[in-house]
Structures are given as structure tokens and as C-alpha cells.
Design goal:
Helix content: 25-40%
Radius of gyration: 20 Å
Number of helices: 8
Order of helices and strands: EEHEEEHHEEHEHEEEEHEHEEEHE
CATH class of the largest domain: Alpha Beta
Strand content: 25-35%
Largest sheet: 9 strands, mixed
Distance between the termini: 38 Å
CATH topology of the largest domain: D-amino Acid Aminotransferase, Chain A, domain 2
Length: 319
């Protein structure tokens, strides 16, 4: 059996604490606070290859959300938005990538041992790597099979879902592992009230009778940037959008369903708990939104929303 190629093969540099370092040197101490207590906030951003060169999708919105996530956890980022923007450019260009996934992370390093994070230093790193279709190479064309997870999302008064915190993804791991163990590509979590929340790492949309439904922020969702992009495209086209609590049963009776997120982009859902959605193929609303989204992100259509930030000319790696 052929060993699977690592997506990090050929990646030479990581931006870390103000400079580019060799990939192998981008390390943290085993006693880092984030390792023991989950004190990390992060983002997932895509850089797309276009005819005009690499361009980062909604970079400023992602960095703003990172800043807001850090505010929730009283973690002051020791770099400005402008510095982080340049750091993303440097990480992409120093590795010679035209298209990639960008992972900025802000975390508490090694300071003191104990739950109180305030005496541990704040560190920042930005890694990049090529990353294809998260749920499979043909997921966008054929859709994926999902299940409703037995694990619920944390309530609004627990860990705030609006902050993209590393600790929140322990819950996501339970949802994902359960889905895979049962033969599904992805799991769908309910909120503490039993309404539909989101996937393990994606937002969710349903189409019913020509209307687009998505759970509100009060259903313990991360307000996704791709989610916002889909809402923008839908509303521009005149599609009625409803941000309302969605009962579980609607997952089985809707006409179409799809996930959204940086990693999955827009991925159709063809079945939930082995109940086929529609005729089991991506529906017309889903296909239209996918086509529009991909055309903009790949530079094939005018970027009328200003979503793409071109990556400037290459930089020289610093030793």
C-alpha cells in the first residue's frame, strides 16, 4: 500500500513570533499553557490561484474574527492587523505557493503552570500548506453522507461558540470520530435545545420550498465567513433567507442541504442518517451558489464584493 503524501512535504517556512523560521524549528515548549489548557484561538483561510496570481479570500474578515476571538479570552495579540496581513503574505510567498490553506494561531506559551493564563506569554504562528477538498475530492460534485451526532454543542453560557477557540474543537473531534466510525463523512451537531447547530467544523444550510434556511448565532454556531459569503450571494440573487432555529426533522424533509466553511467551501449533503435528501444529487440552489462562489474565488468572475486580497511579490526568507 502506497504511503499517503504529507501535505507539508516541501513546506520550508512558518511565520512565528515576528519572523519566518524553518518548518522544523517552528516548535513550542511541552509546558506551553495552550497544550495543557486549550488556550489558543485560530483561523482557517484559503488562498486561491487566479490568473492574476495568488489571492487570499476575505483576509481582513478572518483577521478581525481572530482579534475578536482573542478579546473574548483576554488575549492581546502582540501584532497589528497590518503586521499579520504581511505575515500571511510572507508565509505564502516564502513557500512558493500559488494556492494553499493558511492557519494563523494565537496561543499561550510557557509561563506558569495552572489554569490562570494571564502570566503565560502570547505567541503567534502562521502556517501554510496545500489542502484540497476536505471531505473528499468529489465531495462538491457528488455530495456527502452525514449523520446527526449524539454529541451536542455547548450551551451559549458555556464556551462561547463565536470565538474560534482550539478548546471548542474537542467537541468537534467527538462529533467527527463518531461520524467516521459509523461510516459517514461528517456529523451534524444539535444545540442544547435540540435544534440543528452545525457540522464538526462547518456551518449548515437547508433549502425548503425555494427558501434558504440556516441556524442563527443563538444555536451555538461559529458565525462562519463562508456562511456570510453564501448569505450575501443568496440575498443578492433574491433568494429568501431565514435565520431561524431548525428542528432536526427538517434535515430529513428538506429539498437540499449543504455545508459551508473555509475547508469545505460549499459541499452538498446527499443524505442524513441514510435518509436521502431530494434525489440524492446536489440541487439547483446548491449548484448555483457553488458555481457563483467558485467563479469569484478563482478570479473567473468580477470580485464585486472585494473578497480577494492579491498576494504581493515574493519575499526573501529570513534566517
Amino acid at each position: 500500500m502506497t504511503a499517503q503524501k504529507s501535505p507539508f512535504e516541501g513546506i520550508r517556512y512558518v511565520w512565528m513570533n515576528g519572523r519566518l523560521v524553518d518548518f522544523e524549528q517552528a516548535t513550542v515548549h511541552v509546558m506551553a499553557h495552550a497544550l495543557h489548557y486549550g488556550s489558543g484561538l485560530f483561523e482557517g483561510i484559503r488562498c486561491y490561484q487566479t490568473a492574476a496570481g495568488p489571492a487570499i479570500f476575505r483576509l481582513q474578515e478572518h483577521l478581525k474574527r481572530l482579534e475578536n476571538s482573542c478579546k473574548v479570552y483576554r488575549m492581546e495579540i502582540p501584532y497589528t492587523r497590518e503586521q499579520l496581513t504581511q505575515a500571511c503574505f510572507d508565509a505564502v510567498r516564502s513557500n512558493g505557493l500559488e494556492e494553499c490553506y493558511i492557519r494563523p494561531i494565537v496561543f499561550r506559551g510557557f509561563g506558569t503552570v495552572g489554569i490562570n493564563p494571564l502570566k503565560s506569554p502570547v505567541e503567534v504562528a502562521i502556517a501554510v500548506w496545500p489542502w484540497g477538498r476536505y471531505l473528499g475530492d468529489d465531495a462538491i460534485e457528488k455530495g456527502v453522507d452525514a449523520c446527526v451526532s449524539s454529541w451536542r454543542r455547548s450551551g451559549m453560557g458555556s464556551s462561547p461558540a463565536l470565538a474560534k477557540a482550539t478548546a471548542n474543537y474537542l467537541n468537534s473531534q467527538l462529533i467527527k470520530m463518531e461520524a467516521i466510525a459509523n461510516g459517514y463523512a461528517e456529523g451534524i451537531a444539535l444545540d442544547s435545545n435540540g435544534s440543528v447547530s452545525e457540522g464538526s467544523g462547518e456551518n449548515i444550510f437547508l433549502v425548503q420550498d425555494g427558501q434558504l434556511y440556516t441556524p442563527p448565532v443563538s444555536s451555538s454556531i461559529l458565525p462562519g465567513i463562508t456562511r456570510h459569503s453564501v448569505l450575501t450571494l443568496a440575498e443578492e440573487s433574491g433568494l429568501e433567507v431565514r435565520r431561524v432555529a431548525i428542528p432536526r426533522g427538517m434535515l430529513y424533509t428538506c429539498d437540499e442541504a449543504f455545508f459551508t466553511g473555509t475547508a469545505v467551501e460549499i459541499t452538498p449533503i446527499r443524505s442524513v442518517d441514510r435518509v436521502t435528501i431530494g434525489d440524492g444529487t446536489p440541487g439547483p440552489v446548491t449548484r448555483r451558489l457553488i458555481a457563483e462562489f467558485l467563479a469569484i474565488t478563482r478570479g473567473e468572475q468580477a470580485d464585486r464584493f472585494g473578497w480577494l486580497t492579491p498576494v504581493p511579490a515574493p519575499v526573501h526568507a529570513m534566517s
